[in-house]
Structures are given as structure tokens and as C-alpha cells.
Amino acid sequence: MRKCPMSKRAVSYFAAVVVVVSLLAQTGSLQEQYRESASKLIAAALVDQDAMEKLSFLCDRIGNRLSGSAALEHAVAWAAAQMKADGLSNVATPHVKVPHWVRGNESASVLEPVNRPLTILGLGGSVGTPKKGITAEVVPVSGFEDLEKRGRAGVEGKIVLFNVPYEGYNRTVVFRTAGPSRAARLGAVAALVRSITPLSLQSPHTGALEYADGFPKIPAAAVTIEDALLIQRLADSGNTVTAHLEMEAHMLPDADSANVIGEIPGRERPDEIVVIGGHLDSWDVGAGAQDDGSGCITALEAAHLIHELGFRPRRTLRVVFWTNEENGGAGGEAYRAWVGDAVKNHVAAIEMDGGAEKPIGFGLSANGDLSSILARLREIGGLLGPIDAASVQPGGGGADIAPIMTDGVPGLALRTVGTHYFDWHHSRADTVDKVNLGDLRANIAAMAVMAYVLADMPTPLRQTPSSTR
Ligand SMILES: [Zn+2]
């Protein structure tokens, strides 16, 4: 028989068609398979009342929850009881040792050329001042380059003010974390940091600093944008600005805390695990409502609704409230140690720690080639079209799941519009009134659908549907 000259090309063409058609079929099947359950989860989430009640209790009745505080341990006990009440199984509170920093009283004021009180919040982890406080000239700098240019001659014995405009959290936060030691290296006696926020109504924002080894630990506090600009104007007009700073901040011996864990055990593959959660600790001001009560309660309520609707996923869905995210990360490390070898059975982890504004979808970080995982997550994301939260983009994870992501667990973050999160973040304004009920419900819907499908879909996230186990 005569060999057809087109046969090779035709074969590869048809092979390509088969692949595309089968991919489409799988896309269709995953979406078809879960459309009804996703609709039920979304409908239940959008009328949910329990989550706001739980979040209000956590924020209004228990309050802010810094590592080492009695309130955090109250929150641990409450959360464990709430997980049981919400139908979760295997509720556990594995012990975690956490750093214990105490703010104490603190105050600051400008003494010269005018007398003005400053509104400050000491930075988490800061040392205190001597009892009589520190009185010194304040040198405003516009960044590290400006600081280095002034050198030791310009800042020794002085208080350095990092007056750096907000250019997004990740870009600007370095002045809070590294600024104090950078100033101490040149002989500064204290550091003030313009609050890391786009918006200020005379509200200071705290957060952790990181002292570098080998340099003196100097006291450091956040000032409001208004106060940073006041000091800048006074200095720009040619005056020497003198300020006084008093801080009682100090570290105590490490304290006892715990992660809080509860599960919906898998019906078929209980050893395979999908983790969802947030961090239970907060700073010691405000109420830790958006950061990160909203993440914890969203994850808990997602699991609660899955349980209430009688859905029992193939794999285990595990809710984790990590402790000590804000000033140490001991909870995330302890969770990694607690799971031991079972880390390899973790199919995915979703951390929500960006507040509960209107959700837009999820971000993903994972080792190796993201494209196949992204494609599968986008199939699931398609189920969130009805609430406009279908986006799945590279860039996810979270501080508490970072230790298990190092072992190869794909890490997701629930993403929101993020319009106001950093207006409230780490400030007295992070209270439950900032959480909009409709947005909270939509976050629960997004979390419930993503978590349920990840825990239930026939082939785990990292495997392609055609490969067999
Ligand atoms: Zn947080």
C-alpha cells in the first residue's frame, strides 16, 4: 500500500485534537461535578450569620491577642471549643513556646523648637528606654541612602526618624524591620519610624522589628504620618528638633501557647490533608479583627458549612489557627514539626491573612512548574464566578504555611481587593466594625468551595487527572 505523505502530520494533528478534547472534557467534568455542591456552599455562605457572631466574640469579648498574653490563651481555649461545637473532629491544641514581649507604658514628645506630644506605638520586640527616657536631637531621613550619606557624624547620639512615604507594604516595611539596627550601626540612640500605612488619622501602626546581630539594640517606635511630617517641617525650617522618648518595653521568658487544629476526616483518603486557616494571635492594640481574626473565622466557618451541609470530602480537611505569626512565627514552625513525615501527604494549604475585604480569588506559590497546578486551580476558581472570585494567579502562600511549603506543599492565599487592609493593619483601628458582613460571607464562600473541591476531587492537586495513583 502506498504510504500517505500526510499520515505523520495527520497523526500528530489528531493526537493534539484528542489531548485538547480530553482536557476540555476534564475541565467540563470537574466543573460539572462540583457545580451543584459549589452552589450550595455559596448559597449557605451568603446568608451566614454565625461567622460574624464568632468574629465579634473573638474581637469584642476576648480582644487583642499578643503572644504571651492571657487573652491569646483564652482565644485558644475558646477556638478549640468552637471547633468542636461546629462539628469538627480530632480537635487538638498542640503546645507551642512563644516569645513574650510586653509594651508597658510609652510616650514621646517634641521639646524643641515647639512642645508637642507625639502619638507613638513602640515596635514589637523593641527594648525600652532608660527610666528617665531619652532626650536627643531628631534627624529625619528619607531612606537608607540618606541615612548612609549622613553617616556616623550625622546621627551619632541622635534619634533617627525614618520618614519614608508608603509605597506598598512589602516595599516600605523594611524601614520598620531593619531601620532601627541600621540607625544603631551609625550610633543612633533611638529610632522613630513613620507608620507603614497609606492612610493616617493620627493613628500609629506597630509591627515587629528585627534587631541585627552585632549592633546595639536601641528603642524604636512608630509615629503617625502626621507627626513624621511635623518633625520633617520643623527640621526643614532650619531648627534643631529635640524629642523625648520613654518606653517600658521589654521581653519576658518565653510563654506557653498552642496552635488550634480541627478536622473533617476524609471519607476515602483520610491521610491526605488539605489545610486551611489563619493566625489566632494579633498585636496588642485594636482587636485583631481583620489581622487575622477574619482569616481564622473564614476558615472555620467554611469547614462548618461543609460539615452542616453533610459534605464529607474524600480527603481530610484540616482547619488550623496558628499562634505567634506576628512576632516570631513559632506556630508555623511548630505545625511543621507536629505533622512530621505526614507533611508529604499535604495536598495543599490555604492561608488567609490579608483581611476579609471583597474576595477576588486565590494566589498560588509552589515548587517547580506552576502551570499545571494553576490550570487545575482555575478550573475550581471557575466555580466562584457567581461571586466574582474566580481569579487564580501566581503568588500565594503565607507566613504560617511557609515551613510546610519548603517541603513542597503548594501554598495558596485567599486574595481580596485589598483596598483598605493596610489602613487598619497593626493599629488600634483593627476592630470588628471594619469587617463588612457581605464581604465576610463572600470570603467564606470562596474558601469553602476551594477547600472542599481540593479535598474531594478524585486526583490530588499535584497529579494530572490522567495519571493514576
Ligand atoms: Zn496577619
Topology:
Elements: H1 7-45, H2 50-62, H3 70-85, E1 89-92, E2 95-102, E3 106-112, E4 116-118, E5 120-122, E6 134-141, H4 144-155, E7 159-162, H5 169-172, H6 174-177, H7 179-185, E8 190-194, E9 220-223, H8 225-236, E10 242-247, E11 250-258, E12 260-264, E13 269-279, H9 289-308, E14 315-322, H10 330-339, E15 346-351, E16 359-365, H11 371-381, E17 391-394, H12 402-405, E18 411-416, H13 421-424, H14 437-456
Parallel strand pairs: 6-7, 7-8, 8-9, 13-14, 13-15, 15-18, 16-17
Antiparallel strand pairs: 1-12, 2-11, 3-4, 3-10, 5-9, 6-10, 12-14, 16-18
Helix pairs in contact: 1-14, 2-9, 4-7, 9-14
The structure holds zinc ion.
Tell me briefly what this model is:
The protein has 469 residues and is an alpha/beta fold. 38% of the residues lie in helices and 23% in strands.
Description:
The chain has 469 residues and is α/β, with parallel strands linked by helices. Helix content is 38%, strand content 23%. It is built from 14 helices and 18 strands. The strands form three sheets. An eight-stranded mixed beta sheet has the order 1-12-14-13-15-18-16-17. α4 (144-155) links the parallel β6 (134-141) and β7 (159-162). α1 packs across α14 (437-456), α2 packs antiparallel against α9 and α4 packs parallel to α7. The structure holds zinc ion (ZN). Residues 279, 291-292, 325, 353 line the site of zinc ion (ZN). Zinc ion (ZN) binds next to α9.
Question: Which key phrases capture this entry?
Answer:
469 residues; alpha/beta; Aminopeptidase; Glucose Oxidase, domain 1; 2 domains; 8-stranded mixed β-sheet; 38% helix; elongated; disordered N terminus; binds zinc ion
